[in-house]
Each structure stands twice: as structure tokens, then as C-alpha cells.
Design brief:
Length: 309
């Protein structure tokens, strides 16, 4: 039996269909396919939320948050910057690293990064959040956790992405990635006014995805899902213990409810999300992201009176 809810097709196959599919694949060679099945079929909403919260963690590192603030992209044009980031990161998982579109997307990512003097340890930290935060999110709120196959595939996928981005000394295992992320945050998390502005701008963008009356609830819910070190680094007050407990309990209840649903057979890609609004008529990969400001060689940062100090 199949049924469709808001264009999403469920049913016709066992509830554990995608877990069985992924278990038959080899995480050493089929890691891209396994990871994609998890992202677009098994956990599309969860993975998108987890990767969004991974971005918040990067804002809490002053070197990263201050640079994002300085460019003005996440504060002055947050919708487009968010859309470009998610679209560029999706292409390799959708088409494979050897596909011309994937190469174009990675080339754009590398061009943007090379325009700045970004320390290697910051690049490695950001990569670690893409591996660790989704796993921890699913452990806490998903209908199930990653299987060992899926976790290894995720590690191998991001190791491959990191290599294509020229990142050195990439961890080999999930435990290595998680140790790196935790150690890095203990050392580098700190409050920075620029990082706070970027976080505020991202929260303001998220509020536009819901009815205006829900704006305050979106802020409170988001802060409730942040851990205390992250809130302290961003300068956010913690919600009341009761609100935090209720928020997390609601997500856990959602995960348990989803266990009763048949497998989802309709793909949900980033491009399908209703809150990606920058390209209603489509986009060209080569035109996504930031580009150097005319007259300022190699630097996309605005250096005028309107730019943050």
C-alpha cells in the first residue's frame, strides 16, 4: 500500500527498506550512494536540521564567525548565502565526485575559500562538524541512529570531500572526527561580536520559514537545542529548563512516531525545500557563491564605510 502526503510518497516497501539497501552496499566503495540514501530518503529533514546546527557551531569560533561577518554575506544577504552553501554542498552527494557538475561545485567552493587567509585548522574543524553533528542529532532525535555501515559511509564521504578541497590531516574514523571537534571547541569556542551577528542573522532567516506569529517560538526552540557551551560562545541566554526539556522531548517524540511510517520513496533534495528562495527560475552552479569585488584584487570583502569593522 502506498500513500502520498504533500507530494511525498510513502509505502509499498518495508519500513526498514533503506537500511536494508544500505547494508547491501560497501561503505568503502559505495559511500556516496549510502550517504545519499540517508540524506534524501531516510533522514532528509533531520539531516538538514543537523547540518544547519553544524553551521551555528562554526559561528562560535571567533576566527570563522568574524570572517563571515566581515564579508557581509551572512548578515547582508543571508538567504542567498544559505541557499548557495546548501546547493553547492549537495551536488557531489547527488552526482558523485567525478561528475562535471560536482567538479564545478567543488571548484566554486575552493575559489571562495582561497580568496581568504583561512587557517587549515578551521577548514578541518568545519569538516568535522559535518560528520559529527548529524550522527549526534540522529542519536538524540532521529527515528533511528546511523548503522555502522551508514556511519562509515558518512566518514568516507566527507574524507573524500575534504581531499577534493585540499584539506590535510583528515581523521580516518568517526571517533577521530568527534575527538577533533570536541577538543577544538574546548580550545576555540569564545564570544565574538561578529559571530553573534552572523548567528542572529541566520536565526532571523529561519524565522521567515514559518508564520510570523511563530517567530519567537523559533528563536526559543533553536536556543533550547543548543548545548550550553555553544550558547555561551554566541552570547545566547538559555531557555528555562522546562522549555528546554519540552523542546527536546517533542523532537524525540517525532522520531518515535516516524518509526511507524513506511519507508519514504520520494526523494527530497535541498533544491526541493520551499525555503530556498533565491533561484525560482533555476541556477547555474558556476554562478553560485561569492566573487571578488571589482577593483579589489582577489578579495570578495567590501571595504567601504558600510562594511563592519
Amino acid at each position: 500500500m502506498e500513500f502520498t502526503v504533500r507530494g511525498k510518497t510513502f509505502g509499498g516497501v518495508p519500513r526498514d527498506h533503506w537500511r536494508r539497501v544500505n547494508d547491501r552496499l560497501d561503505p568503502e566503495t559505495d559511500y556516496r550512494e549510502i550517504y545519499r540514501n540517508a540524506v534524501v530518503h531516510e533522514f532528509p529533514w533531520d539531516m538538514n536540521q543537523a547540518l544547519s546546527f553544524a553551521l551555528f557551531r562554526t559561528y562560535a569560533v571567533p576566527g570563522i564567525g568574524a570572517l563571515l561577518d566581515e564579508t557581509g554575506q551572512f548578515t547582508g544577504n543571508c538567504q542567498k548565502r544559505y541557499d548557495d552553501t546548501t546547493l553547492l554542498l549537495e551536488v557531489p552527494s547527488e552526482k558523485g565526485f567525478d561528475d562535471p557538475d560536482a567538479r564545478a561545485a567543488i571548484r566554486r567552493i575552493n575559489q571562495m575559500h582561497r580568496a581568504y587567509d583561512i587557517p587549515a585548522h578551521e577548514m578541518l574543524y568545519v569538516l568535522s562538524t559535518f560528520v559529527v553533528v548529524p550522527k549526534r542529532w540522529l542519536d538524540s532525535y532521529g527515528k533511528r541512529s546511523f548503522t555502522d555501515h551508514e556511519l562509515l559511509a558518512s566518514v568516507n564521504y566527507y574524507r573524500a570531500l575534504g581531499r577534493h578541497m585540499g584539506i590535510a590531516d583528515i581523521p580516518e574514523t568517526y571517533l577521530d572526527f568527534s575527538q577533533l571537534m570536541d577538543d577544538y571547541e574546548r580550545e576555540y569556542f569564545a564570544h565574538d561580536a561578529g559571530g553573534r551577528r552572523v548567528a542572529d542573522s541566520t536565526l532571523a532567516l529561519m524565522r521567515t520559514w514559518y508564520p510570523r506569529a511563530a517567530g519567537r517560538a523559533v528563536d526559543t526552540f533553536s536556543r533550547a537545542l543548543m548545548d550550553q557551551p555553544l550558547r555561551e560562545a554566541l552570547g545566547y541566554d538559555a531557555p528555562s529548563p522546562r522549555v528546554e526539556a519540552l523542546s527536546r522531548a517533542a523532537l524525540r517524540a517525532r522520531g518515535r512516531l516516524l518509526r511507524a511510517f513506511p519507508a519514504r520513496m520520494t526523494e527530497q533534495t535541498v533544491a526541493d525545500l520551499p525555503y530556498l528562495r533565491s533561484y525560482p527560475d533555476g541556477f547555474r552552479i558556476e554562478e553560485l557563491g561569492t566573487f571578488p569585488v571589482p577593483g579589489v584584487a582577489g578579495c570578495p570583502v567590501r571595504h567601504d564605510e558600510a562594511a563592519p569593522a
